[in-house]
Amino acid sequence: MKTIRWGIIGVGNVCEVKSGPALQKADHSALVAVMRRTAHLAEDYARRHGVPRWTDDADALIHDPEVDAVYIATPPDTHLAYTLRAAAAGKPVYVEKPMARTHDECQAMIHACREAGVPLFVAYYRRALPRFLKARELIASGALGEVRAVHVTMHQPPPANLEPARLPWRFLPAIAGGGLFVDLGSHVLDWLDYALGPIVAAHGLAANQAGLYPAEDIVTATWRHESGVQGTGVWCFTADRREDEILIVGSRGRLAFPCFRDDPLRLTTPEGTTALPIPNPPHIQQPLIQTIVDALNGRGACPSTGESAARTSRVIDEILADWRQQSGVIFASAE
User: Are residues 192 and 51 in the same domain?
Assistant: First the structure.
């Protein structure tokens, strides 16, 4: 098998543990170049992680003849532009989640990669994590009977010491496409697409209750999967405490587990409740990255593609449609 040589555009926090080392440790994978607009930070990352080359020029990395594939780890507002440039250079693309700010931007990315004949993958890594694969297996095996409904709960207190003039990009809709619902909720909705089938209808209410930043800070949603399973979710990011649960209800049992912690899965049937402890790996993106490397070598397929990730962005668009209109959040056309 060929060693896939990776270049990263945007070596921020996500690349420190979650993804950068995973590109180095996956079989037949090597990280050979990194880029960040601030040159000394790119150089610092390369030095600390043993990466041979660094640059502050994205095009230099994209056109580097020793880079086989490009990982885009920048905020969502730049995903489209960098994907178009990588595709034009004939390089396979792995892009961070959410795939883009809107479904229209996702479609433009898919079109560019299809026209260039290069694959497009997205970092919805729960599709390859052992604990989430076990949950999917339990559902598919009939351990819950026929699945009827799913309920998602995510509550968090607001971050301390937010400065209005220096807000992180995740709270700025023009960059992130929304707030923490887009950043975190996308993980849940994408995995539910994988486990229960595509979501074919979604509706939502959103608001900014605390006024700490421009993005929505509470979202309630309902949706229906192609399989007939119905879902509800509440994401509140100015709550009194942290709560994190995905609850899947079936005709003879239920399965409960968090999305962002690695507490045991809890399977409850008429026979009782069983706890299934399955910890996450040290580098949480490594299992998905391994499927990408294997796919690029013609061995198997990656479960998270541009097409699957675009479905999640479409659902988010539907849930946030009224809020975006009321709050004046408008994105330029991707055409």
Answer: no
Nearest alpha-carbon partner for 216 in 165, 177, 160, 164: 177
| Sequence-ordered list of residues with C-beta below 8 angstroms from that of 276, at least 6 positions apart, any chain | 134, 264, 265, 266, 267
Distance CA 130, CA 33 (A): 29
Per-residue model confidence as pLDDT tens digits over 38-87:
999 999 999 999 999 999 999 999 999 999 999 999 999 999 999 999 99
Is residue 335 scored above 70 in pLDDT?
no
> 112 and 18, same structural domain?
yes
| Closest by CA position to 98, among listed 330, 332, 313, 329 | 313
Q: Which residue has the tokens 């499927």?
A: 291
Looking at the structure of the chain, the number of domains it has is 2
d(CA 152, CA 232): 6
- The residue segments making up the domain with residue 120 are 4-125+285-301
302-334 pLDDT per residue, tens: 999 999 999 999 999 999 999 999 998 878 766
